Amino acid sequence: MNMQCNNISPALEISSVKDFLRNICLDKEDIIVQNLELRNVRTVYDFLRHVSYLTVTSCTGMSNEENVGISSQSNLKFASAHENILQNGVSVNGKVAQHNGDVGNLGEGELCNGHAPVSREKGDRCNGVQINGQHGGAAQGEGILTNGIGSSGVDVPATHSEATYACKEIAAMQDYYEQAKEKRSDAEKKGEYMYFDMYIKSEVIKTFPTTDRDKERLINYIYKVMDVNDLLMMCIHFGLPHLWPKFERSKIRNVDLFKRIIIEGRKFERVKNEMGISFSEFVQILNFALSVKKKRIFCNNIFSQFDPWDCKSKKKHTKTICDKIHQFIEFDNWTFKNIIDNPFFQRLRNLSQLGVCQFVYPGATHTRFEHSLGVGYLSAKYFTHLCNRYNLSPYCGELNKMLRCVQIAGLCHDLGHGPFSHTFESFFMNYKKEDTDHKWNHASMSLKIVEHIIENLIDQDDVLDSTDIKIIKKLIIGRAHYKSLCGVDPVDSLIEASYDIICNNRNGLDADKFDYLQRDATIAPPNGTLPSLNCNRIISQSSVINGHITYNVKEIHPVWTVYMNRFSLFKQVYTHRKVRVMELMLCDGFRLADDIFKWSESLQDLDAFLDLTDSSIIYDIKNRAKKHKYDEQVQKSLNLINSVIHDRNSNYAYKYIAEINLSEPQLIKYLKDITNEERIARYAHGLSPDDIIIDWNHLNYGMGANDPLDSVYFYSSDNEDEAFIAHKEYRGTHPRYFEECNVRLYCKNKMVAHLAKDAHNKFLSDVFSESSPLYKKKIVK
């Protein structure tokens, strides 16, 4: 809803609530106005106090939060170079001068805490606001400056003239600011800060005799008013409504603008002379502006019932996609236009999700495009659920921005994949690279592409800004480090946990995994050999505690099923022996042709990378082979690729020889240290190390050799505020080892396959015989 919130009448005390509501175009405006009049709510001031309340939360480091009074001020003290302002309304040296307008001199060298003199004479007015001693305001009458902020109610005379007194107040403002800034700097080093929390009382709005459509419009409008006018909201809730018109006339409606123009610019004369703000009022506003880290607006969701108007609105501004996993998923028009319809995202249509698995499992034909749509949908659903757990709306303010970033990151997390997905990354770009070598990875490429897309969008509209790029990139790669966040406020805790929604480096439970485990399992018939997973239950039982996503402990078995399903898919599909040999053949063919086409170098050029797809890389080789029939290197490349795609019985196809499975960690390490192609080839005369390939497959539950449940936080229904690691009694049965190693031997030349078989058998007899000295030394010991 596009509404202007800055045109609120500056005359707060006389602006009627009817004029305020007229800006919203409500269906039942008159009925709402009548209802408010019955509640004695007639002005904007009354209305905003009626539908909202405020708290200031003080935080120190990582300690638990503590609510403090909204009018509390720091005890900063200063010694003015001029004569001092009175302390708490009492004259310096304990002397109170009352001369009915005569001049009274103030002592020198005294300290004050920033409170100015006061007058509570009944009937005084300030900017049209009646002051009856209930709340303070600056008023001038017969040479006496009156102020009610933090005063004791004692009348104190002004100095020689109002001008002289004003000069002293300006100088005092300057001195106080310097001291306050230094004090604030020390507080920041200690991690001391405050949150300015504004709450929309949705339960009050819910009682209004009108439609949900009107209520939603009203809440959205109030939210925007608060978001834009946080400094003015401070004036209302701090009992300083008379300052609202002063700030309105100066077009200063939020704290950031006040700090930038007035405080950092040191426009203290403007504060005093043009805006008419007294010293004590300045002190209160300054302390607030310097101490508040940020504002937060809270509003519970009250629209849980079916609303035809809401559905009609969504239909107008969203598009629906039919997905075989999540059924009907929706994205707004902006996301479709700028993200999904972007050429880099459309490129995913031509990248198979499971690479060469499609040549073993005929149903494995889904693409990265489908998967990315699913992750984008699940990410937004996940974040929305976590917001609702806190009774926060993900459609307003800071959380709305985060929701947008989460969805974009979910959609774009796989933009950097090469042809045939992980096959290109593992067997082509990083083939035979050591762990210490620099390796190309699709995630880094995704970050590069996302940055390119978002930078172009920033120039087109104001939906995203430069800070969103960092957020989206961090969402894609996940958190690298986890720190204790005990006592963090709900919004910050939720935002911190959001970085685990798409890529959870702690325990692997994320939207990416939830989607591909469900999607990839559909390549087999329902109730077939592959396990199925329904992540909706797991997401619905998730919550955020101290910056971590947690799950109800009664869902520990569904959570464990996620890890079990991952293990099963890796063992039965991703590392199937025929799948692996085809990946080896395909990428051997790619490497032979890379010297000609320079695909590996095109990764630095986004335009060239845009054209790099499953079909394009094969087309390049076939087209080159037709034009250069005598190019031996290209012909070898084509023969290998055809052996995968067309002719499985080709003499160029690699042959599976044998495999062994190990689960004992010490045994796996032992075999890894002594096994290589050169050693096995020595067991058979006529067998070359280049004729064979040793393929290592480490199968685990996502956390290497560790139990993944040791990294998952749970909560109990009895205490939803405390996270814990589930003890063994919760878990039931679990495997003895959480990682196993599958080692396969393939032969590139069918003519020597029998030699490879003999060499393999002799190698195993030699290495794993109990009589082997090497075995006794490495294993038995």
TrEMBL record:
SMART domains from the UniProt entry: HDc
GO molecular function list: dGTPase activity
Pfam family, any one: HD
An annotated GO cellular component: nucleus
Biological-process GO terms, alphabetical: dGTP catabolic process
Residue ranges annotated for the HD/PDEase domain, each copy included: 364-514
Protein's name according to its UniProt entry: HD/PDEase domain-containing protein
